[in-house]
Design goal:
heterodimer, A: 242 residues, alpha/beta, Rossmann fold, globular, B: mainly alpha, 11 helices, binds adenosine-5'-diphosphate, binds magnesium ion
């Protein structure tokens, strides 16, 4: 079964085509990246695919359920681009709160323990979220999405604003998550897309201008590495990268 | 279950914020003490403890609209609500999740206000229980106003605008001066808005004046229903 199947997915804001007729598929178990500069339409795509924005036209099927209805929501969880945590709750309380939306008390407490361990949050489990470093906040935010055991996980710019060490730690965490969920990740950071993804879609002005594995994209552009490939592909599709 | 889970989170968020304690408890308490001392030296009927106490109780509740508005708008800003909108939570889980903890705080506020009023000479009587119940209904009104504000305002604006609501509620409720002395038009405005009736309902409940309690309470209930409907519609729109 396909995890995602977009059918001419489109979102217009007044005169901007933020997302312009997307048609792509994601296989179950894949880590699929949307790579593009600021304003390319990555967040808007994700928001539609997790039910936060209604498409202007078109549709997408998530495990065969249309995003225009409600049923698909049980499959998905999202870690938004902003670090969406409850600031005055501790790490543990944040996780338990999310878990209780999906599970009964006993199971929720079990899941919380499990996730704290999986995300190495033991050291800060009783600390209020607002006192955490950027790296820990981001990790908590992702853990809050993962706790519902989603079949499909959306991570919108998961490493935005993190230092190099935190970023590498988070990459390891994401690599581990691949075993359990299909993951859609957005990034404007080429190295991140190259390191983590099974497949990469390069987005620009609301459209996908190239799609494939990192190696395929390098070949396509006839360049020697992925960064140059990204720049070349973006140029071929209309002048400057933005 | 989802409602209680969310209510629990909101209660924690509220009581861990020092602003809540300062505005909900300490500030009204200071006013009560201050006015009672003034009244001891210069007795004015309006500020006798029987009239002052219901007024302060109601004034304290008006801050619930600010807490709710700020809670919602800051959850929007951090995308915490966005995250929750992508879960299976429904609008009613959210709305009642805001109402429950705030009503609880409203009840505690009123209890503290009455307890200290008793120290200043309010008669400790069973009718105070009824007055607390009336306060609880008034709390729901302020929460529903707060939900409306939180849905339409940014995090920066929500604090300021809800403090205007608090001011309005204070001026139009006859706590600080007798509305009959200000003039006809002013009195009419006060009488078609819910705030004056809120204070009167609490007063009447303390005095065991059943018909006045009910007639004033109906105003509050009517406005609460209207604001509940508006806030549900606005919230559902936010969720889209
Ligand atoms: N709510 C909105 N109203 C109007 N325009 C929007 C809105 N959200 C996004 N946009 C516009 O849509 C385009 C794509 O934005 P976005 O999806 O956030 O890009 P990305 O996540 O790739 O940086 C941008 O031009 C942005 O300004
Ligand atoms: Mg974005």
């Amino acid at each position: 079964m396909k995890a995602i199947k977009c059918e001419n997915l489109t979102k217009k804001f007044k005169n901007i085509n933020a997302v312009d007729g997307l048609n792509f598929e994601v296989e179950e178990g894949e880590l699929f990246s949307l790579l593009g500069t600021n304003g390319a339409g990555k967040s808007t795509t994700i928001k539609m695919l997790c039910g936060l924005l209604k498409p202007t036209s078109g549709d997408a099927k998530i495990f065969d359920e249309s995003i225009l209805k409600e049923e698909f929501k049980k499959f998905v969880a999202v870690s938004p681009q902003e670090t969406a945590v409850a600031k005055n709750l501790t790490v543990k309380e944040n996780l338990l709160f999310m878990a209780k939306i999906y599970f009964d008390k006993t199971k929720a407490e079990e899941k919380t323990k499990e996730i704290i361990k999986e995300f190495s949050l033991e050291k800060v489990e009783n600390q209020r979220a607002k006192t955490l470093s950027g790296g820990y906040q981001r990790r908590l935010s992702i853990a809050m999405a993962v706790i519902s055991e989603p079949k499909l996980l959306f991570l919108d710019e998961p490493t935005l604003g993190l230092d190099v060490i935190s970023m590498h730690e988070l990459w390891d965490t994401i690599t581990n998550l691949k075993k359990k969920s299909t993951i859609i990740l957005t990034t404007h950071y080429m190295k991140e897309a190259e390191k983590l993804s099974d497949k990469i879609a390069i987005m620009k002005n609301g459209k996908i201008i190239a799609l494939g594995t990192a190696d395929e994209l390098i070949k396509l552009s006839r360049k020697s590495d992925f960064e140059e490939a990204f720049i070349e592909i973006s140029k071929e599709n209309g002048g400057d990268i933005r | 279950m989802k409602t209680l889970n969310f209510a629990n989170r909101n209660l924690k968020e509220l009581i861990r914020d020092p602003i809540t304690i300062i505005f909900a408890i300490i500030f009204p308490e200071c006013l009560l003490v201050l006015m009672s001392f003034i009244n001891r030296n210069i007795p004015i009927d309006l500020f006798s403890i029987e009239k002052l106490s219901p007024g302060i109780a109601f004034f304290g509740l008006s801050f619930l609209s600010m807490f709710t508005a700020i809670n919602i708008s800051s959850d929007m800003e951090t995308s915490f609500l966005t995250r929750l909108f992508s879960t299976t939570m429904k609008a009613r889980n959210f709305i009642f999740g805001y109402v429950l903890p705030n009503v609880l705080i409203g009840i505690v506020q009123t209890l503290i206000c009455f307890a200290s009023s008793i120290a200043f000479g309010l008669k400790a009587q069973v009718s105070l229980v009824g007055a607390v119940a009336v306060s609880a209904v008034c709390s729901v009104l302020f929460v529903s106003i707060g939900i409306c504000l939180g849905c339409v305002l940014s995090n920066k604006a929500s604090g300021g605008v809800s403090s205007i609501v608090i001011q309005l509620s204070a001026w139009l409720s006859g706590i600080w001066f007798d509305i009959k002395l200000v003039g006809n038009v002013y009195q009419k405005i006060c009488e078609v808005l819910p705030f004056y009736h809120g204070v009167e309902a609490i007063k009447a409940a303390i005095n065991l004046d059943l018909s006045a309690t009910i007639s004033n309470l109906l105003w509050i209930i009517g406005y609460t229903i209207i604001f509940m409907i508006i806030s549900t519609l606005l919230f559902k729109k936010k969720m889209k």
